[in-house]
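Example: Polysaccharide lyase.
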Amino acid sequence: MLETRNSRRTIAQIAALIFVLLLGSPEVLAQAPSGFVVGTNSGVAPVVKNGEVIFKMRRGDCQKRPYGDGRGESDCANGNSRSQLNAREKQRMGRAYEYSMEIWVDPAFRYNGRGWGKVNYRSRLWIAEWQRSNTIKNHMYEMYLDSAKGVTFEDKRCFSPNRFGQWNSVVMRVKWSNGADGFLQVICNGREIYSLKGPNVMPPGCGEEWKQQCKPELQDLTKPILWSVGPSLKGHGMNYRDFGFPSAFPPFPEGGITLKMRNLYVGRIRS
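Written out as structure tokens, the predicted fold is:
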């Protein structure tokens, strides 16, 4: 009887300790802010602390699950490293939306954006992307990060590396359309950096070397749009050996990247 009581007391003490630790910690793993979920293909989940989403990603943080599109590919097989949140509700053609967030990049972060053996037109590190859901090669727009250009959108600088270590606001206002009524505007730290009127669902450069995740012949305009945020390092693909690369995973700083976001929003356009 005494042994049973002691066992129960020990279990109760452990449970109480766990409760106190959880209650006293402002940090919760794999918790997403309202309206967002951890990305299905994320190799590592972000951390939420005091209203900030903290992404910490290293080379090789990948998901082994197959994409499910019949090609037999996965992030790990393709050399992709990823830690992302996805907007819970997908967006529709013919409707207007505002996407907004604030971004903080570790001031010590250094990455030139390149892969093995070649200079890329755009960085292999994406921190936000817009694509048509459940389709192949239907990426539309991305935000890129490297320590030479900073954060860019369609080759326009959003904020420079000297803004690393500070919070930066990003707002996109768009009406997704393949007609004359479409528009797209990107504002960074209160300054417009990109504007497009008319059709916007077939992005400039679709199918070019720097935008290989967009193939004009595969575009499906009937699909809803998925917004993802967080670092995603694009690999060299399953056939990396054919190009003489030593790994599907491109070079990346040993310490990885620390990136923070807050005030994530997608919804109607606000005044």
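The first strand starts at residue 27 and ends at 29.
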